[in-house]
Amino acid sequence: MLKRHVKCLGFDLGTTNSCVSTMANGVPTVLPMLDGSRTVPSVVGYLPLEARDTPLVGAEAERQALTNVKNTINASKRLIGRRFTDAEVKRAAKHVSYDIVQGPNGEAMINVPNLQKSISPIEVGSEVLKYIKLQVQQRPGLEVENKPHAVITCPAYFNNDQRRATELAGQLANLDVIRVLSEPTAAALLYNYNSTNNKIKENEIFVVIDAGGGTYDISIMECSGDGVYSVIATAGDGFLGGDDWDNGFVEYLIGDIAETFAQAEQDSSSARGALDIKSMKIAIMNAIRADPVMMYTLKLSAETAKKQFSEKVSAEIILPGFYDGKSYKKVITRDQFELLTAPLVARLIPPCKQALTDADLTPRDISKILYVGGTTRSLALQRKVSEFFKQKGLTTMNPDESVSLGAAVQGAILNHEVNSILLLDVAPLSLGLETLGGIFSPIIKRNATIPTRKTQTFTTSEDNQRSVKIKVFQGEREIASQNHYLGEFELDNLPPGPRGSLKIDISFEVDENGLIHVKAVDQDTGVQQSIKINNASLSQDTINEMLKTAAENKEADKREREIFEYSKELSGLITGLKEALQERSDLLSKDIIEKGNRLVAQGSDFLTDADDLARRRLIDLLELKKCRDRIHRLMLDIGKSLEGRTTSM
């Protein structure tokens, strides 16, 4: 039997479900599992080691979850690459049945009692990838290498730590990871690869709405011709997805179950009214939340009902013997569900506004809306997004499979199986370094297309300076310390010389996977040093907060920058004035010397205040400018005076 050789696998490692695809005769194709399913639940169940030395994955793990709740791990993607102290980890802990603990290096880990140890979310992700790889390797008619090439997708706003963790999960699954690709980028790549009648034209701007189980991303993209598609702005909510709809529904069900059973208990009481129904309700709610089996049952029921609302106007929830032997039955209408989840739907729009603002666009500039991710099946979501952009979204792609299929297309491009279509992501925040006066000097600007490399030349600020410390930051504030610190390194063994004589090229590079590389090189000697940033651990929520803070402090930051620039000019003028007063005192009038000394003292006071953060805020910017201008005029007067004396000699 002839077998088709699979060169590369495209993985959508999702929060709720995962999928794998490949390129078959130029057609991106989903590879089903041996049981025929086209997606795999991203769930891993760990049994006692004496019972089984490999975990259960997918549907098999889900089936045993009710009896093994503390050892069954779902939604681990919310934790991958995160610190235990991250706000997102604390939020996730409220909605999972397992225990999240702190690792030896402060990372979020998962306690697995059956293994008698804690494991990393990276290990959980690797088990899902490993399971899927083994399934396709066993499929008849396919030849898949033991370590195949792989493209793995992640949310657009995954930071460096999360992208590296995703790559490591693939490596642990014995995959040769050739690219970590943003999910909206993958979906756009698929659409453009498959489109015929409605193909995106040159200079057309479109939006990709990606709402999966755990994240919500919007990417504004542009076709600039010659097969080049670039992301011009992105925004999102790292904690908004189908799981959040489920969790909101679960909270409603807990309250309704408690109300129903508490009321029934009071109605059956012989001493009518003697029981405190409010206290009973709270006790029942607490009991349900404390029981992992009941919580998991509610989670599955909520998810099943939610999916029905895409096609039906109502769904029935039946829970036999759910609480204290009592059964619960409830019919929920689609309108009720949409009312319950209206706050979540409202959260869809701020990222859309943010992305449009960043791109300097309006909803009218958008030509198409692509929907990907299972949550985009929600009619309420589609209505809300359509109302904002004044048009309906395209639903030609299967939202559960499009990201994986796009990853397969990217893999085929990288392996030269198909013609290249360039897809370029953007930097979520500006990258730069701290310069004289603590000022942030951006090298790569926010929303710059990546991969990219930028170089700027800097010089020394002191005489005979033998080393330069390069501190790297990420953010939009004018003052470096108010941005996110990424790391630092030192370029030493510099040759002595007057300040400003050395020229140092500092290069920033962001590669295809969003990882940051910084290098400093002395132009004269070739001495160089570099750093690879591995800890740019910013979540989507943190990025949004930083952008908000930068906008709120725009005027204050502008003032800080102006104070620095004027102080820098003032410092140079004072140095020149001092030299003139000392070296040419015999040629200057007494009035000029006295005026010069007064201005030097006044200017020095300004420089002293500018070096102190507390006093800097009290500086009168207008008076600082006047002092600079007075010294500048005096220097011109001195120059004319000296020129006249020289001429008359």
Automatic annotation (TrEMBL):
Q: Name a GO molecular-function annotation.
A: ATP binding
Q: Which UniProt keywords apply?
A: ATP-binding, Nucleotide-binding
Name the domain of life.
Eukaryota
User: What Pfam families would the database entry show?
Assistant: HSP70
Q: Which SUPFAM superfamilies match?
A: Actin-like ATPase domain, Heat shock protein 70kD (HSP70), peptide-binding domain
Sequence similarity: Belongs to the heat shock protein 70 family.
Q: What is this protein called?
A: Chaperone protein DnaK HSP70
Q: Which organism is it from?
A: Giardia intestinalis (strain P15)
Taxonomy, top ranks, is: Eukaryota, Metamonada, Diplomonadida, Hexamitidae, Giardiinae
